[in-house]
Write a structure and sequence with these properties.
Length: 274
């Protein structure tokens, strides 16, 4: 009798991950017989670990920091969105034994904003903070929603400018420093920096947000993040953290691997009550 379909998350470190919990709930919901485990591999071991996992019959993999770019390099084929992002968070097997790389992060964020939180991106002014890998992964799907404009603000200005230049063919996008985001409150401000990890907040002008701005932190924690606390202190009435993005990108990975989209509602409810 064949065993469960095996899935794995490659990362370094990876022990803090909620993905086994999330995929475990998806599996229960659909009666799928899967086993989802964590694999902590150092960068120099990554390529070999992926090849061995799939040669041993693995069904699919997720990839997190610091391996997303290396995963894009080793895949035999990439979806357009993964090629644009230059990063892969989902690997599936296609064409017999070839590794196919996708990136579901941006779709996860957009799904959370639109479907779960009812936030309209189209026609709105969107400010994205940070210019690293996390932001690169979400720019294409955000621009596909046709915001009125999308500005990337980063501590290191030229990183923001260079990143914006890579996506300019997809819509109205530019890169600036934090002090150049203007004095008009943004409709949507998305924090994609890793500043929260150090308990810090990007140094934005106070007037960049107002009561009607929606602030979204791609980071997640049980309590409000430093960015959410900053937003509240500036009078922002509505802020969210990245649990929904996490669950929705997992659901999109499930689609890539298994062809159906799980119901994310019960998982979001379970995580919210932790
Ligand atoms: P990731 O893959 O998580 O995006 P990264 O590529 O190292 O990681 O990018 C981290 C991002 O967070 C960068 O935009 C970084 O700004 P710099 O490009 O100026 O380094 C941003 N960042 C990290 N710590 C920050 C802080 N304390 N304040 C503001 N931005 C910060």
């Amino acid at each position: 009798m064949p065993g469960p379909d095996r899935y794995v998350l490659f990362g370094h470190p990876v022990s803090h991950s909620w993905s086994p919990f999330i995929h475990g709930m998806f599996a229960k919901q659909s009666g799928a017989d899967i086993h989802y485990s964590l694999m902590d591999v150092a960068p120099e071991r990554f390529r070999r670990a992926v090849v061995e996992f799939f040669q041993s019959g693995g069904s699919g993999a997720n990839v997190t920091l610091p391996h997303k770019q290396a995963a894009a390099e080793l895949a035999h084929g990439l979806t357009d969105r993964a090629a644009r992002a230059g990063a892969v968070n989902t690997i599936a097997v296609r064409w017999g034994d070839k590794l196919y790389g996708d990136n579901t992060d941006g779709a996860g964020l957009v799904h959370d904003l639109k479907a779960n939180l009812g936030i309209r991106i189209a026609g709105h002014r969107v400010l994205v903070l940070g210019a690293g890998g996390a932001v690169r992964g979400v720019l294409g799907p955000l621009l596909a929603e046709r915001p009125a404009e999308l500005v990337i603000a980063n501590r290191t200005v030229d990183r923001a400018e260079r990143l914006a230049a890579e996506f300019i063919d997809l819509g109205a996008i530019r890169g600036v420093g934090f002090d150049a985001v203007g004095q008009e409150p943004w409709d949507i401000v998305i924090n994609g920096t890793s500043a929260s990890l150090a308990g810090e907040v990007p140094d934005l002008p106070a007037r960049a947000v107002g009561p009607d701005s929606v602030c979204y932190d791609m980071a997640y924690a049980r309590t409000d993040t430093p960015f959410q606390r900053w937003a509240a202190s500036r009078g922002v009435r509505r802020s969210h953290k990245g649990w929904g993005m996490l669950v929705e990108q997992a659901a999109e990975s499930w689609v890539v691997w298994r062809g159906t989209r799980p119901d994310t509602g019960p998982v979001l409810t379970a995580l919210a009550s932790l």
